[in-house]
Amino acid sequence: MSVDLLLRGGMLVTPGGPRRLDLRVQDGQIVEVGEELSAGVQELDATGLHVFPGVVDAHVHLNEPGRTDWEGFETGTRALAAGGATTFLDMPLNSSPPVLTRQRLEEKAALGLQKSLLDFGLWGGLTPLNLDQLDELAQAGVIGLKAFMSHSGLDEFPAADDLTLYQGMQTARRHGLVVATHAESNEFTRRLTELARAEGKTGVRDYLATRPVITELEAVQRALLFAHETGAALHLVHLSSGEAVALAFEGKQKGIDVSIETCPHYLHFTDADVERLGAALKCAPPLRSSAVQGDLWRELLAGHVDVVGSDHSPAPPGLKTSKDFFQLWGGISGAQSTLNVLLEDGHHARRLPLEVVAALSALNPAQRFGLTQKGRLEVGADADFALVNLHESFPLTDLYDRWAQNPYRGVTFRGRVQVTYLRGQAVYQHGQFAAPGQARLLRPAQKEST
Ligand SMILES: NC(=O)NC(NC(N)=O)C(=O)[O-]
Ligand SMILES: [Zn+2]
Ligand SMILES: [Zn+2]
């Protein structure tokens, strides 16, 4: 138990902007925020540093149990903590069997409580296989329900056809749960892939051409329609194009309950980087041209994006090695670098205000998923924060995720995370980690069901 820790002299990143404020922590919670607070039993000098709310990463794949060799709670949460994260929401795949029932949820939760360094929530799957399990999953405390609108890559987690998605949204709505969609059209991606394979195509550009922006737009439009009709809350994960964000934002303005996520890789890398780096940057939806990336940045800077989640999804080298780009497993290792990308490419390069960095990485996801204790540096909230030296420039070389392959390796960023605190305890400090065993399982705060 932490007793009375005083964080002194830091620049707190508050919703109104950075302010020089001290912060007092008792028993893991923030109990006082103000100027020149009286001494604490322990003091932590944050002079010259920025204090960000701990990152709440709404989109990670830690794959435990079943594919822990791809990525697991131990290494995955080290990477997250080193990047300033204190909370994450884990996807129902690629753990195996995937989280489609209460039992699978409970098994994964038990493993996480044992091995995770950080607090976490668990997504449950929404597939044609488990429509009859959704009520139980909701009661068991899933953070939301996740559906794929195209093939997930795993037959054990089939894509949601239209009726499945529609009915899943009706159930989610009854429980006040958010439905997240991987929005790419199954029709488009499957047919374009079949055609490319029939012609013997194997290259990077060939793969990129099988998932053009229209495939994302079509699926986003359909997901918005279903959310509109059912009244369900929709979370569009990993939107890769400015056009898709604009379409979703239009829906939001019409009253659809939708939140919009993009990922650091769409903001930092382009299709040219996929040609340069290969397997490390294969993902779906794929990386886009610099023109499309420019549109995405414009949408983000206009305030149309709610959440930046890492979609951290590594795989072992054997699955990431092939001359045929189509054969490679998709997924990018990015658990550690969300804040780095938002600070370098957003704040330093494009004047994205620091409070917007904090909103995209912490406050907005916490609010969207009912994590009332998370995402803000205010009295009553959990004392989850990262101390960042905003102007320190460094090549990202000390990476803590499962595999060496990481597209951010060696990239120079400004804004180094020095320490990360979870509920008043240091979980990461200058390359050192606390022992796991303190993590909590988070459930969404109950909303009114109507
Ligand atoms: N099975 C996965 O890990 N999928 C993920 N992979 C990507 N994005 O390439 C995802 O979020 O769709
Ligand atoms: Zn996805
Ligand atoms: Zn994902």
Automatic annotation (TrEMBL):
GO terms classed as biological process: allantoin catabolic process; purine nucleobase catabolic process
Transmembrane segments: none
Ranges where the Amidohydrolase-related domain occurs: 51-427
Enzyme class: hydrolase
Catalytic activity: (S)-allantoin + H2O = allantoate + H(+)
Cofactor(s) of this protein: Zn(2+)
Any single GO CC term annotated in Swiss-Prot or TrEMBL for this entry: cytoplasm
Cross-referenced InterPro entries: Allantoinase, Allantoinase_bact, Amidohydro-rel, DHOase/Allantoinase_Hydrolase, Dihydroorotase_CS, Metal-dep_hydrolase_composite, Metal_Hydrolase
Name of the protein described by the UniProt record: Allantoinase
Organism of derivation: Deinococcus cavernae
Origin organism lineage: Bacteria, Thermotogati, Deinococcota, Deinococci, Deinococcales
Gene: allB
